[in-house]
């Protein structure tokens, strides 16, 4: 579970840099505001997509639905009885 937290911290830092730090280094020009907005929105959307996907895989809500007979048959097959 510790590696999950490391992953979250690293990716949060990465998208934080893209969305917060990088827009300050955009050169002045007529489209600077649009480029800054695009960078921030891209960072937020990509981070939220990644975070939702990561958290859903960390604790899945839907598991396989098997009947008891099937589970027993699988257990017998795998144990070689």
From TrEMBL:
Coiled coil: none annotated. It is a multi-pass membrane protein. GO terms for biological process: transmembrane transport. The chain crosses the membrane at residues 6-26, 38-58. Its main location: membrane. Pfam families: ATP_synt_H (PF05493). GO terms for molecular function: proton-transporting ATPase activity, rotational mechanism. Subunit of the V0 complex of vacuolar(H+)-ATPase (V-ATPase), a multisubunit enzyme composed of a peripheral complex (V1) that hydrolyzes ATP and a membrane integral complex (V0) that translocates protons. V-ATPase is responsible for acidifying and maintaining the pH of intracellular compartments and in some cell types, is targeted to the plasma membrane, where it is responsible for acidifying the extracellular environment. Belongs to the V-ATPase e1/e2 subunit family. This is V-type proton ATPase subunit. It comes from Strongylocentrotus purpuratus. The lineage of its organism: Eukaryota, Metazoa, Echinodermata, Eleutherozoa, Echinozoa.
